[in-house]
Amino acid sequence: MQSIFAQNGCETPEPLKAEVQGSMPSWLQGTLLRNGPGLFSVGDSEYNHWFDGLSLIHSFTFTKGEVFYRSKFLKSETYKRNITADRIVVSEFGTMIYPDPCKNIFSRAFTHLCNVIPDFTDNNLINIIRYGRDYYASSEVNYMNKIDPVTLETIGRINYRNHVALNLATAHPHYDQEGNTYNMGTALLGLGRPKYIIFKVPAFAPEEGQKPALGELEIVGSLPMRSSLNPAYFHSFGMTENYIVFVEQPFKLDILRLATAYFRGVNWGSCLKYDKGDPTLLHLINKKTGKTISTRFYGDALVVFHHINAYEDDGHVVFDLISYKDSNLYDMFYIQNMRQDTGSFIDSNKVFSPPICQRFVLPLNVHKESPRGCNLVSLTDTTAQATMQEDGSVYCQPEVLFEGLELPGINYNFNAKKYRYFYGSRVEWSPHPNKIAKFDIVTKTHVEWHAEKSYPSEPVFVASPGAMEEDDGVILSSVISPDPNTSSFMLVLDAKTMQELARASIPASVHMDLHGHFIPATV
Q1: Where are the domains of the chain?
Q2: For a designed S-S bond to 269, which of 94, 112, 233, 320 qualifies (C-beta 3.0 to 4.6 A apart)?
Q3: In this structure, are residues 107 and 115 in contact, taking their beta carbons and an 8 Å threshold?
Q4: Terminal CA-to-CA distance of the chain, rounded, Å?
Q5: Which residue, among 482, 472, 477, has the nearest Cα to 503 in the 3D structure?
Q6: Are 124 and 138 in contact, with CB atoms under 8 Å apart?
Q7: How many percent of the chain have pLDDT more than 90?
Q8: Tens-digit pLDDT profile for residues 148-204
Q9: CA distances from 97 to 38, 84, 175, 393, 397 (A)
């Protein structure tokens, strides 16, 4: 028997009314869209990795104190090809489908070598992102699938390359106060000089009709990779009022190994490598000019997936992220390593380095004549340091804020601003957490919500109407349980106290998800 997290999910195509217990805030109106892996076998074939499962989109609609649930599989080209063949025929991160030797393997292999970068799956299972008024299921490749946020129907696939020359793009963009969307991507071999690209997709007012916002995509700037054949992997980035914060970590993609994966008989996951002897480079790119600050900021080797927030403060850029000491996290999600009972992992305490919430501070005005060896951080509310080196570079040492928290969320009204609180899933030797925590950056204390045999997903903050305080609102999280007598439910917490306000029990099977997007109801 597989872990509950790797069992096949099923669709709930029509809205189901949930049973609400407690006091659902009357002001909570809108739809929470969630995305994650939901189908782990097709026919007699099975995926090897949890991140390979076919995308299952969920929606939780809040209206007049009631909650309605529905779910549908993303009808990507990958999904349709697999279902038609009744087996897995498209390669994923940890599951490689090798060409049939009876069907001209040499021609296919030659094609891959000529293109260098293989054509990736469009199984967009990571997040829901917004460009203009359109919503897309997204992962980290050049494809996305547009969805209807109400019916969850798949409208059709789009290719980033029709708008910008890149091979990979994050599923964690940022949105500014005007509704513009900023994102980053990687342009690899075959598309000119390898580089990282920052781009902006403008917001559109309703009177401008149905013109897709992606058609107006603008390049904000770019920066070269430190290694053309080994670009840094990145899952997210930071953004302040004036800067994009990019962490070029020594967790890298091996392009040659990727291009020859079929020959070597390896999966794409094995093409990522961690060079712990290399430093982490910290880049600041001006959003208005597209230019990168010339100071070389660097830190010790680390692995990062999620940024928390970033802002500017008295001539400094402050940014918080969640780091790891190694790259073993992905290995833990191979389905063969998942325990059958709880969804945690065999010998996980021996191989899994805990996530550490860290704060970096980069001084903006670095002078060449600054004394060598001095700490250039003048902020008094942090122990983070930035030390001037003999060669004029700046070595950055972060402040440790908190340990054991992942999938961070904030009141997004405070994104790119100085803030006090962040929320996340508590990770205690298992990537499938069973607690939600609120951390106070000022007091360095945290409060938790916990329920036995319950596994909450990423917490999502929704602010109260007219809220003046940062934590005035609610936390939403979809919760599943291995207990057959316990229904899955949508959890609603008071974001100030982390006390449970309500839960909406779902009369259907709900699957563990990854990330999502809350769409407020229009008045």
Answers
A1: 4-476+507-520
A2: 94
A3: no
A4: 47
A5: 477
A6: yes
A7: 76
A8: 999 999 999 999 999 999 999 999 999 999 999 999 999 986 656 789 999 999 998
A9: 19, 16, 37, 45, 43
